Request: fold
Amino acid sequence: MKDIIQIQNISFNYSNQPRLFDGLSLDVHQGEWLALIGQNGSGKSTLARLIDGLNVLTKGQILVAGMPVNDANVLKIRNKIGMVFQNPEDQFVGATVEDDVAFGLENRQVDRQKMHDIVKQSLKSVNMWEFRDRIPANLSGGQKQRVAIAGIIALSPEIIILDEATSMLDPRGRQDILNLVRQIKEKNHLTVISITHDIDEAAGADRVVIINKGQKIDEDTPAQIFKHPKRLEQIGLDVPYTSQLIAALSKRSVHAAKEYLNSEELITWIKQLVSTT
Amino acid sequence: MDQAISFDHVTHTYQAKTPYAQDALNDVSVTIAENSFTAIIGHTGSGKSTLVQHINALLKPTQGTIKVHDKLITPTTTNKNLKEFRRHVGMVFQFPEKQLFEETVIKDIMFGPKNYGVSEADAKHAAVDAMNLVGLDQSLAEKSPFDLSGGQMRRVAIAGVLAMRPEILILDEPTAGLDPQGHKEMMTLAQRLHDHDQMTIILVTHQMDDVVNYASQVIVMDRGKIVKTGSPAQIFADPEWVYERQLNLPSSTEFAQRLIDAGIPMGKLPLTVNQLADRIAELVAKGDSMNE
Reply:
């Protein structure tokens, strides 16, 4: 499988702060949904910033679509990457919702009629077209994030990095946005990197990477990663709900064979247990 | 129980008298009891934040009245009279760490009390107390708030609100963006302020697990109206109704629903993982005894 992002033996620290990364390597496969999980301060967001060339490495290199992230390539690379941050307030520039989504296209000198079509389509895809004349500041947190995501979609990037992008949305809105990004990902063959604390969001990824204190602890499929719920807990992450229930049952002397089962497996097991009559 | 807050037919219209006028609150009447822990839930844009911003008079009603303790806010209340109001109602906004601005942690926390004319010494005393309350080590007092981690910055911001010694504390999605450990610490803090410091806590949240684990009373909002109030058990007893409001069930209630769908009897819907585990353990024990 082709690697769209290659992180090779990188070191980095913010000025006057201890080293965050020391020889970290990680590949992101083209077309995958990769979840980066870890505590606040573990370096997940910094990694996203390094990929986008917003911070400069002290050692090693990062390749995006084969191009090293450096001054010469940074604009080309940023055109390939759409970043959605946790707090959309930081990202608004337009006076209205519609203007805001158009901003990135204006920067790229997209033809006016075409721009209108793209903005309309993008806002419709996040269910915010009817809000196009509103002032972004007057929207609710979740609505703002939808607009921010529309702004990214409008620029049709190859890679979308969601940096805790759904953490302000209500559970339904979160699921809607994730489904939406998933659709766009499939349709346009995108690669998605999702930086998240939401264990359910990570469960839907193709691969999960755990970062702790700048170190890559593990990378594997969600099912493999979740086999070690105690490790997740130790590094301050949430434990999947099914593992919580298995642990609670265990305290009541009802023991499962494994510490992690997915929902279907757990339901099947419980069904067997209670219907032994 | 005494009521801390009451809304009497409150309507709030944003951008009133413009073509964009829209009712964010529509004829809302509700009371919140003294020393209660109340969760306000509702779909994105349902009016939760607008509702709580009336409690500390950041917004005035377009129609109707709000009573907080013995003080009244009406559409005609002058801004001058609102200051005293706000002193008793602490408001922690979404991402409160964005509002930090002082050179040091202690100065930032002292800003509120000093703004209300408290002496330097008393403000410092209040700030030190507030740092203890939120679990910030005193060694951080002279540091720049901007050198702290996100979770610590949020606690500084909350300490700044607590230093005013409010009787009512409003937390608007206080755990958004925190990692799971930060989340747990934040909710434990809210619980302690309620149980130990006898504060009335109002929590705006999308986290239904927090609602069942911490709140005793729930207000459900939908399109600017209050559509239900009750205990968590009352609110979540009707999953269909919850889904229609575009809300989720607590994890354990949702999982119990799936067990019911798989033909496993549940009886009263569980709200927490312990309630669900109790129920399953009961069923297992019953199955075992029937086998003997």
About this structure: The longest strand of chain B covers residues 3-14.
